[in-house]
Design goal:
The chain is mainly α and 169 residues long. It is elongated, with a radius of gyration of 39 Å.
């Protein structure tokens, strides 16, 4: 019922920590606009500047061409001159391994692939008894039958057990 600055600040923090920089900046800016005298104003302004720089850096990386065209296949700690000459017959060095295929070039304009989780197909054997509609139909029928039996017993039956035993004068 009452506006709370902590709610807006926490939402901005959550988006920042989740990696949604654009949404975090928008929420931080709303926080600054709605609560100009907030205690955390300097911290929020610093976060906004930091996030804007990160967004700009991400845009530059997405639109710039790749720096290298081939991944390095040099093992750590070995100079390239050792790899250029074939190993001697008595050398304990293993023969060179075939190079892995180059990764496919990713177009910066194409959207990232979206992973979709598919639910597991419903299997009647894996469902518990409480999740089966037939079970609840039987339970409902049994309850209805019990109610009918109780009503018949309570409302039916003779009112006077022996009305013909004698006459009252």
């Amino acid at each position: 019922m009452k506006p709370d600055s902590a709610l807006l600040y926490n939402a901005a923090q959550a988006h920042r920590l989740a990696g949604d920089k654009e949404r975090a900046v928008a929420l931080y800016q709303n926080y600054l606009r709605m609560y100009p005298k907030a205690v955390k104003r300097s911290e929020v302004e610093a976060r906004v500047q930091e996030l804007k720089k990160a967004i700009e850096r991400d845009r530059q990386l997405a639109t710039s061409p790749p720096i290298t065209t081939m991944p390095s296949t040099l093992p750590p700690g070995r100079p390239p001159s050792e790899l250029a000459s074939p190993p001697a017959a008595s050398s304990p060095i293993a023969p060179p391994v075939a190079k892995p295929p180059l990764p496919a070039v990713v177009d910066a304009k194409s959207p990232a692939p979206v992973l979709v989780a598919k639910p597991e197909p419903a299997n009647e054997e894996k469902r518990s008894l409480l999740q089966k509609p037939l079970f609840w139909g039987v339970v409902g029928g049994a309850v209805a039958a019990a109610v009918v039996v109780v009503l018949i017993v309570a409302l039916g039956g003779p009112k006077d057990p022996s009305p013909s035993l004698g006459t009252v004068k």
